[in-house]
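Q: Can someone sanity-check these two? First one:
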Amino acid sequence: MVQITRAADLLAVGANGGGWTAPVGTASPADPAIQPAAPWLPLGAISDSGLVQGFEEDSESFTPWGMVSPIRTTITSSLRTFSLTAWETGRTTVQSLQYRIPVADLAPADGLTTFAETASPTPDRRAWWFIVLDGDNFQRGFYVPQGEITERSDVTHTQNEVAGYEWTITAYPDLEGNTVYHFDRVPDTDAYTGS
């Protein structure tokens, strides 16, 4: 009979997690089990939709004359994104990201914060750190050395739902040509038991 190897502790359930941002050039925390320190700033509560790790790729296939199957396929575009909805819209870090304004410019004066949205936004790249947790069993970290919010959804203000900033963050290559660094604390995979 065929032996099918299964390990429940290798399944990932995104039971909890968080996100932080820092200026480009900030080193990665490098371990999802360690609390990020300054200059990393927390995003606060994220909606129960969690974190979406996106893969968008385009390819071009080459089929020789006289054949119907390609003999080669080349990746022509490879994009990595992360999507989430930040619920703490009153947090200055979150406002800074939503409106592309430095956090320091959001300091209140006499309890009032004021700012204006520009008609000509400039790029706002930052470093990002995301973690996904499943108790002590499964801990995953994603470090994006250069990422930018490239999509913002409408914000709904109503009495029956929490207002949130829904973002898609696009990861850009760093000096080494990498877009995302992975840091995982997962159980060891059992030795292969087949013949």
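And here is the second, same format, sequence then tokens:
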Amino acid sequence: MSSKGLKLLTLPLVIPVVSLGILTACAKDNIKAVTANGSSPSKPNVILDIKSQAGICPKTVGLWTISLVSEGGGEYTVVADTRPIANPARLVASSERFVEYEAILRESYASCIGSASSQEFRFYNFQFRNGKVYFRVDLPAIVNESVNGTPDVGITYKELAASRPYVRWKATE
């Protein structure tokens, strides 16, 4: 079997195992495991500051992110940690290149109007308004950045994991 064939066979096996690890971490609050970079899988590995415009807002919101990059593209997984600040999320809109979830904010944050995003993770953003938090994965922003033309970019999986938004997407040249 060629090296390329082995890579293609390995990727579908690795992604579900890694995803299962994230789901397990999301579902259990008492996990004590530590990842290779020293962070705990029970806590998000990306923390975004919430820019409050009005009302009482949480200070931060977290994401678990995993990138499996290979020659010619990659698979990316993100889980939004909305559970500490909101009730269970639900999928409200999606297409091949975007997905949006909403969750009713906990009573203490119901007045929050604000947003959270970062330049590094610009395709993931949170909006806080009308007593809800909206989490959106929007891939069109990265399509125009390809040097060699438009890559194949799309959402391959969207679901809830322990009542949290879970999205997997791909980008290949």
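A (reply): Looked at the second one. Residues 5-38 have pLDDT under 50 and may be disordered. The chain has two helices and eleven strands.
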